[in-house]
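We modelled the chain as a single entity of 471 amino acids. Its sequence is:
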Amino acid sequence: MQLTKLRKWLILINISISIFMATLDGSIVNIALPTMSEQLSSSISSIQWVVNAYLLAISVLLLVWGKLADIYGKKKIFMMGFIIFSVGSGLCGFSNSLLMLVISRVIQAVGASSMMALSQGIVTNVFPPGERGRAFGITGASVAIGSLTGPTLGGLLVKAFGWHSIFLVNIPIGIIGILCTYFLIPEIKEEPEHKAFDVLGAFLFAGSVLLLFMSFLFLQDQKVSQTVFAIMLIAALVLMIAFIVHERRVSYPLLNFGLFKIKIFLLGISTGFLSYVSLNTTLYFMPFYFVYILKFTTLKAGLLMSAYPLMTALISPFSGWLSDKISYRPLTVIGLTINVAVLFTISTFGTSTSIVQIVLFMALLGIGSAIFQSPNNSSVMGSVPKNELGSAGGVNALFRNLGMVSGTTISVILFSFTTKINISNFTGEKADLSSQIFLKGFRVVFIFAACACIAALLLSVVRISLKKTKE
């Protein structure tokens, strides 16, 4: 595909806008939940479905959009994602009940999942191997900037214009994205061997993922007993086995399991999964530590947390560029090694840890993540055939989401088992009485996060020993 340098970078900006929007929308909503709860006369547990429904819908559809893009072309499906996301944002902005808001969030997530599933495939198609790492570094920075600006922008919008504005702000950005996609992105389509879509496989996969994620979310919030959780987990496993059996028999499967025979791809998504397990554990528990142990205000806690995405945004483009020069292998190992050291250090934090230490190690966590993620994504997407890039992008994004949910759920279970405290009910009034107990669970959780990161590091070391493939 021959494109001018200017057009390639304009396409990258468009892709980055889509990633920024999807990431921003995942982080901007949290700050508005209390206001939504009050104005929609809903409980905190009920309003949480504004977040959960978005996550579930995205996870269920990632693989579906990827396959559709491989069949019908990435430009059409990507633009459709922008359109659906913008429409969903408008519906969210005009919602006047919790039910309407949750339904609108699902519509919004349908569009967001398309953009998430296809962004990496489009970047891989547009940029050759020697430029791909830098491009992935810039998209990685877009993720970080979305996470960084979400809470602050959300707070400002809610205060000035009300919670509806956090959704309506997406509409003009979405229109720009739609126009840029139409005029800039070429039709990216490797002629498939067939145009059949595996409907039954899609339903089996969606059912399995839905049950899996809901079981994790319900257990995390202690809304189901361990018995019900086990039943849901078994049901998800049964559906997944049925999906795998079906896929191996059908002529035109939803997922080509041959992708998992590509060692670079398999090791890449596995290390990515484990890194997100450790990362989401950190991002979930650190605010509790700041507010309830160190007695920081929410604003101060938010500013301290911002050290992580700020450094990720700054380092990701450089890390991606460097991976084009020296390959992804040493960078993934270096990044994960930094994070292992950081997580073990954070596990030793106590009641008198200084702000300087906190900022330093949150910044180091961002640096380690940036050094790892962009090269890793470049290696994953560069290892698969072009006619499978849509599916590969969907699988990569799915493993990322699964890692995030798994990390939060497992860490909450470990914390509850260690301390007999439900972190969701942990309040400032209880902090003085429970500081030592909290820190006991906190240490266990971060040792778990460090161990997950060590597992990712070991897989990356294994990957170094593999014969270099075309990337």
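As a brief sanity check on the tokenised model: Residues 63 and 92 are 25 Å apart (CA to CA). The first helix runs from residue 5 to 28.
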